[in-house]
Structures
1.
Amino acid sequence: MTLPAVILVGGQGTRLRPLTDRTRKDMLALVDRPLLAYTFEHLAGHGVARSIVSCGYLPDQIQAAFGHEHDGMALEYAIEDEPLGTGGAIGFAGRALEGSFFALNGDSLREADLGEMIAFHRSTGAKATILLTPVADPSRYGLVRTAADGRVETFLEKPRPEEIDTDLINAGLYVLEPEVLDLVPEGRAVSIEREVFPTLAAEGSVYGIALPGYWLDVGTPESYLQAHRDVLERIFSTQVGDALGADFTLVDDTAEVHPRAKLVPPVYVGPGAVVEEGARLGSLAVLGAGARLARGGVVENAVVGARTSIGEGASVVGSVVGDGAELGAGCQLHNLAVVGPGAKVGEGNVLDHGLRVGAGQTIPDDALHFT
Ligand code: GDD
Ligand code: MG
């Protein structure tokens, strides 16, 4: 037995700037496909046959990439005139459905067993059931305190440090009964986390369950790199991970890797990408479609986007280069440096300590020398 799903994709992704300056957060590539594809894969893998993508602003990029079907799952789009908040958006899309449904945040990666979640939801008779996951620092999330049977006692969005007494947080996926939408007033923005769940907790009709399986919120350059590592190392089980095979190496048939270049697994080389003589790619590296890694260049524990050009002897370590960016010869990127899409970084620049270059920005030769 499964349910239809409402997927929320309305957020702005500000902490991922400049990567999100030209691409919406949910459409940023994770290895070879948009982040959102992994949410679709998860839902479809558990038999979800119909999903409504709930969009706070125009979903052109999503519609263009996915259309009306993905992995055998029908896709529909609910487009708000203006962002309605998480609760308002679930109401706007969910009122078109009959019976119980899943609602979920489209900006996290998960592999929880959805069938088990439904079974638990039915066993308690709850109006809402929240998937829970443990995290090291709950402050950026919704803290959920439960009784031994899973009944939610408190739901506290973005708790203050002194309020944190559990590591369990809202993993951003719910089973909801239609009557939950009675708590969502129409015509204004409503937060399900700040308005609806606290009300349900007070009446004892919302439950939480922590299920095994991978979970990650992709909200920062650091977690974006983490997501890549987890897919490439198959800590997070995905179709892409499977395609990497036993040698953890996936080189597209149309890519060109020079015989005297070195690939260190796990590694992914996209369609039409070029790795020149003496260059080294990996471990834990992604070279996007049509990208070029010039002679002697190094990309390690890093993501280099589609159509980028990494100059001779340049190194990109623990950093991210956005689509279409160009790094001149001898550039060095370290420690979570982020070069925005379409930026041009001249020769010999050193970018360190989380330095971010804006989308389309130009940096002259030898201008930056952070150490
Ligand atoms: N359609 C629509 N309209 N979607 C929205 C809107 C809106 O007005 N506002 C936010 N969303 C979407 C976002 O795109 C995201 O997928 C999801 O709703 C949650 O919003 P975020 O803005 O990303 O919230 P958060 O990351 O601070 O916290 C949420 O996620 C945490 C887990 O990652 C909360 O649900 C927390 O409780 C939770 O722990
Ligand atoms: Mg979020």
2.
Amino acid sequence: MYKLIDGKAVSEYIKNSVKEKVADLKVEGKEITLAVIIVGNDPASRVYVNNKKKACEYVGFRSLEYALDEQTSEQELLELIDRLNKDKSVNGILCQLPVPEHIDEEKVIDRISPEKDVDGFSKINVGKLWVGDYDLAACTPMGVMELLKYYNIDVNGKNCVIIGRSNIVGKPMAALLLEKNGTVTICHSRTKNLSEITSQADILVAAVGRAGFVTADMVKEGAVVIDVGINRNAEGKLCGDVDFDGVKDKTSYITPVPGGCGPMTIAMLMNNTLVAAEKQGEI
Ligand code: NAD
């Protein structure tokens, strides 16, 4: 019988622990601030930014929103980041991705001071992650690690297979599992014999972006299956990358979509902002 990994409950637990620390700091007159930049009118980005603001309210952070026009130049955006980098009252900065095409995403990410880069996307923070000396790493894979920890799922010596090699999920996921002594394989769109590899995984992480991509024949009996995907199926219903109904009975643990990895990402953003403030010596 499989066990469902309850990302909603674990994310509440993380947010509540941040909230408690923030309440203690308030007593000392200290406040933590997250600045969120959004450029343009992408509806999905708007939903994400609103959710981040709500989470800030919940844990007690001050949140600043900079909603910039679609036509904002790259220079104007970089200048805003420079100002926020210098502003001592701002502890965390993130720019909601994607940015409009005329803006170089990489330049934007790397302009954010590494100490305030709460998404953990800058080259400095990615490098620090890979040498195992990091404070801020990408929120979604950090959330997966918290789920594994919460359910006492040991990574040590396990065969961990990740499907997807993006900079925001697949690659940092690999670094974090490796740090916990997993034997890690990253699969991607050019991987040959994918199901042969995935069916050897003790821990299988799907981050592909295709509804129902992972089917039962790709999964080892008793595996832990973590579904990072957020997709819409043919009926427009939210679903992950894993064919949940077909796969669940083969697993020992599985994350649902929604209610699995999704809520963890924002919880880890809150935690990263607290960590950033701590490292800045603000608390
Ligand atoms: P991406 O498009 O950048 O990367 C997808 C990866 O899948 C690529 O590395 C590609 O090589 C691989 N891939 C594509 N087709 C494949 C195939 N046939 N076989 C093997 N690999 C294949 O996507 P991403 O940003 O990493 O996101 C992946 C999914 O996770 C999306 O559904 C996204 O919405 C979701 N996501 C969820 C959260 C969250 O908070 N839960 C956060 C980020 C992304």
